[in-house]
Batch of 2 targets.
Target 1
Amino acid sequence: MAFTLGHVAVSASFDPTSRTNGKLDYLTEAEQLRSHDCDDIYTAHTFALNPDAPKDCAELCMGLRRLGFKQLRGVISGIELTNAEVSHDSLPKLIRCLEIALANGIDRIFCVAQEWPAGQRDADFDHDILPAFVGNITTALKQVSGIVEFGIEPLIPAEQQHVNTLGKARRLADACNAELGDQNVYPVPDTAHLYGLVPREQWPSVTAELIDAIDRDEVPYAHLSIPETRTDRIMTALESGDLPQDALQAILRVQNIDTEAFNPRDRFLDALRERVPRFAHADPSGWTEDLRFENFVEAARYLRRLIEK
């Protein structure tokens, strides 16, 4: 099986139009990764799309390809997709993101689907979330042809520590594909989301669902990010059991994987620090000691050795 290892530029707080000294910060991030990746293990790169910044996207895509990132993937974030009341605003933005992606040769996308619409805590998944999401996604994909893979990475609030996010993502994907009459919408397992807010006694059931989804060829793309301590020392976390070994072995069967480490400046981490005690002790040493990209490359080499066994 061909295997693609990629980098998803952290974090939800990352502004895809942000620049330092005239250069896109996204491009600086990619250059730093590549300078440490002497073996060119990383061949893919994932970044957020901004519906109002087509020129920035084009500039970034050219720069990433120049650095040897052959496969590019776009992220839809910051657009409310699970609230039908704001579809008049969300849907045009979503469509514009898809158009910008295709204009730059990107036909693989994933979105972050909020479990609850922003500011709401009483939405029902079956009656509110699912219909609104399916309506937005399928309308956009019907209008903008050419997207071959649209992934769903659900993001749950800290209060819902019992939620199996992969189960929700599979239901969303199935409903979209039924409406489209084709299978190009998929769940995107993110190990931080699957395991980070779930008590360890529930990990076996989450892992069983992950393995089932992969066995059924529902997962062309996944994120390997570290859930338990929210450290960006990826190898330290893996070796200490912050991810079940069965889950790691399952993820390594997915054809395309992006590694991701948390950003201590991420606005979403604040809520976790408040509500989940273990997140209050997150380890940002990769950032503070300027070892973040060494950590990524060390993990990439480790993953490649496991896959080649």
Target 2
Amino acid sequence: MSKDLPFVGFGFGDQGQKIGIVGAREFEFLTDMFIDASFIRDPANITLLAKGLNHFDQGMEYALIEDIDGFSENYRKTFAAEEDQPFDQFISSISNFEMPDLDQLAPPKITDEQIVFYVVHQGLDMPYRVTGAADGRSKLTYSPL
């Protein structure tokens, strides 16, 4: 990603609507953001594209996994530590689930106009594979690993 790019962020507007921000401009629709800030669709900025697609599809429920090695290492350590703890139905734990195939994790990639990237569910701390149209014209598919 070029350091010469304007600020790009994602959040919520005054009415709770999902928005994207480029520089000082706010966008309520991803397609408008793509028109005004076409650099987001440049392959060199695929991380921004994945973040935008994810945000406009799911809001803040999922976060893009950018540091794959760090995420995998921390997940494995947490999973192992939690397995040694007694089960408590009132405490959510990643070890309540099977260990996901973390070897699938990879940077965002576009093939034949379809994007694949990986996110973590903010509440469950579980990784998901996300697939869908790279142009944002349809809902994304979120599949647990």
